[in-house]
Specification:
5-stranded antiparallel beta sheet, 478 residues, 5-stranded mixed beta sheet, alpha+beta, Heat Shock Protein 90, 12 strands, 19% strand, Beta-Lactamase
Length: 478
């Protein structure tokens, strides 16, 4: 069962129950009120007749004539009939024992009349009884005349009161049918309108579940459903971002595996090829020397690749302990090794800067410096210059490495941080490179809450700037 159908049913059932119950209570209360009014009016008439008879009792006591009494009863009855002019009212006066003094009753008396016998002094009894297709209200009182008890019966047809109740029920049924039909239609429209946004969300969720994460719920209401739709859209946006990140990571992982396999395959192919050649070829000193040189060079490439991979694994370890250190001091410690690398290529090395205190892992920071300077040296020509500078700008610590080498083309700048990516494969292979240096640098910088900015121009040079954000409490060494 759909939600709108549940809302529809659970709203209709209480309405129908309460509407019918309230209507029945109103009709019955109105009927009881009208009937009570008729009863009170009939009782008053009975008292009025009894009072009239009691007023003439002294005269009847003087005459003590049965004929005169009957004449008086007849006159009283006729006067009542003429005065009331109401055919629905009846009067019956009886002398004990069961002798009728006057009666204009035109219907057989039911058993209830017998039950109303012998009412006490100042007592009026009444009861209702169906007579044929009519409902008659019977009232009975008594008065003593000449030591005889006269029973006064005043009866009234209250059928119109019951007919009114039937008419009200008939009218209620007509109104009930119209009201219920109207309510059913309105509640169906309202239920569908209330649940329409939820259905739209369900359809959107179904589309999203099929992989279309760019879809959103178009809903602008300010109620709870609108807030739910807004949170739903935010959730989908987060899921979409996470999935995009996973897809990017997956692509990077696939590219990494592909490039890593390729980087392994090339030196291994050379090593296997020259090894096989040397095994089946007669000894020739020059050929053996060339083959061994190739094998040695390719083995060094494999060694370099293994070391770079170890660096990548190392910097991804968690729970690194950061200590407040001087970036300039770390650079000074690395200077001898950097100078030796530069001398091998006949590159001049210039180091400048002042104290820069910041939280760091010194081993990782050296890895960052070595890789940046190594890339700058490899990109420079002989007699070139590599400048290294550290300085502070407010709450930032900046490490700059600049060279005047071959530079990087603009179309390659967005990809230089990807593992195994190289813009000049021949030059990279010449120096046993694997395209992992900048990827390692980026990981180290990220761990130290830093970012890397690269500005380069072909045949002019490259400047790599690493910017570390330092919290205020870390700016001054203690």
């Amino acid at each position: 069962m759909k939600l709108w159908q549940k809302i529809y049913l659970f709203s209709i059932l209480p309405f129908l129950l309460l509407f019918h119950l309230a209507s029945v209570l109103i009709i019955e209360r109105n009927h009881s009120k009208l009937l009570q009014q008729e009863i009170e009016a009939t009782l008053r008439e009975n008292r009025s007749i009894r009072s009239a008879i009691e007023a003439i009792v002294p005269f009847l006591s003087v005459y003590r004539s049965p004929d005169y009494e009957r004449t008086v009863w007849t006159n009283i009855g006729n006067e009542f009939a003429a005065k009331s002019g109401d055919r629905a009212a009846y009067l019956r006066m009886e002398e004990e024992p069961d002798r009728t003094a006057f009666s204009n009753v035109d219907f057989p008396l039911p058993t209830i009349w017998t039950k109303l016998q012998a009412p006490g002094k100042d007592e009026i009894r009444y009861g209702l009884s169906d007579v044929g297709d009519r409902t008659i209200l019977f009232t009975a009182s008594s008065v003593e005349v000449n030591r005889k008890k006269i029973r006064i019966g005043y009866m009234k047809d209250v059928t119109p009161v019951y007919a009114e109740r039937v008419e009200q029920y008939r009218f209620f049924v007509q109104v009930d049918i119209a009201a219920c039909l109207l309510y059913l239609v309105l509640m169906m429209i309202i239920s569908k309108a209330l649940t329409k946004p939820i259905e739209r969300m369900a359809r959107t969720a179904k589309v999203i579940a099929q992989g279309e994460f760019s879809r959103r719920v178009e809903l602008r209401s300010k109620d709870e459903i609108g807030h739910l739709a807004d949170h739903f859209n935010r959730m989908v946006a987060v899921v979409e971002d996470k999935i995009n990140e996973l897809e990017i990571l997956n692509l990077q992982k696939q590219r990494f595996i592909h490039d890593f396999t390729h980087e392994l395959k090339t030196p291994l192919t050379s090593i296997i090829g020259f090894s096989s050649f040397l095994r089946v070829t007669k000894y020739q000193e020059e050929a053996f020397a060339d083959g061994l040189n190739v094998i040695y060079a390719e083995a060094k490439r494999l060694e370099s690749l293994a070391l770079k991979m170890m660096d990548l694994i190392f910097i991804r370890e968690e729970n690194l302990v950061m200590k407040r250190e001087n970036l300039k001091a770390v650079l000074d410690e690395a200077e001898p090794v950097l100078a030796m690398k530069a001398e091998e290529r006949r590159i001049r090395l210039a180091i400048d800067g002042g104290d820069c205190w910041m939280p760091m892992d010194t081993d990782l920071m050296k890895v960052l410096i070595f890789n940046l300077v190594d890339n700058a040296i490899k990109a420079s020509s002989e007699q070139g210059l590599v400048a290294i500078r550290v300085h502070s700008e407010g709450g930032r610590r900046i490490l700059e490495v600049a060279d005047r080498g071959m530079g990087i083309a603009l179309e390659h700048l967005d990809s230089i941080f990807e593992p195994f990516y190289v813009s000049d494969k021949a030059r990279t292979r010449q120096y046993n490179g694997a395209g992992l240096g900048l990827s390692i640098c980026q990981s180290v910088a990220r761990i130290h809450k830093g970012t890397i900015e690269v500005v380069s121009e072909v045949n002019v040079g490259t400047t790599v700037k690493v910017v570390f954000e330092v919290a205020e409490r870390d700016e001054v060494k203690v």
